[in-house]
UniProtKB/TrEMBL annotation:
InterPro entries: Mutator_MutT, MutT-like, MutY_C, Nudix_hydrolase, NUDIX_hydrolase-like_dom_sf, NUDIX_hydrolase_CS, NUDIX_hydrolase_dom. Keywords: DNA damage, DNA repair, DNA replication, Hydrolase, Magnesium, Metal-binding, Mutator protein. This is 8-oxo-dGTP diphosphatase. One of its GO terms (molecular function) is 8-oxo-7,8-dihydrodeoxyguanosine triphosphate pyrophosphatase activity. The gene is mutT. CDD domains: NUDIX_MutT_NudA_like (cd03425). The lineage of its organism: Bacteria, Bacillati, Cyanobacteriota, Cyanophyceae, Pleurocapsales. SUPFAM superfamilies: Nudix. PANTHER family: 8-OXO-DGTP DIPHOSPHATASE (PTHR47707), NUDIX HYDROLASE FAMILY PROTEIN (PTHR47707:SF1). NCBIfam families: mutt. Its cofactor is Mg(2+). It comes from Waterburya agarophytonicola KI4.
Amino acid sequence: MSGISSPKAHKKIGVAVISNPKGKILIDRRKSDGEMGGLWEFPGGKIEPGETVEECIEREIKEELDIEITVSDRLTTITHDYQTFTVTLYVHLCQYIRGKPQPIECEEIQWVDPFLMNQYQFPQANAKIINLLQQRGIKQ
């Protein structure tokens, strides 16, 4: 063995912080059998080649939750190193337009007040998003 490890995978993810008119944010719980199973997250997914972050977010939200949203300003970009991979989250504020959220690619869905998000267990990379939302108080 040479002792040289292969580089970690680097995942680039478009993330939606979807707010409703009441100021609540949509979160979903990951399927228990997958990576980071059972943890809560902000919906989104892998950015495909040739796709903008905004296109990725719209596509992923339609595929995973079957709702329509408007993608707005970027809230933040976070790069976080986990033990086996690195992730970069391109986080955008989004407005809910229509449709009833369906748990197509997740266990369950909740609309949550930003100040109550500490009651849910999220992956480490999401801590900064939650802090920013609590600082902003997300207003419509």
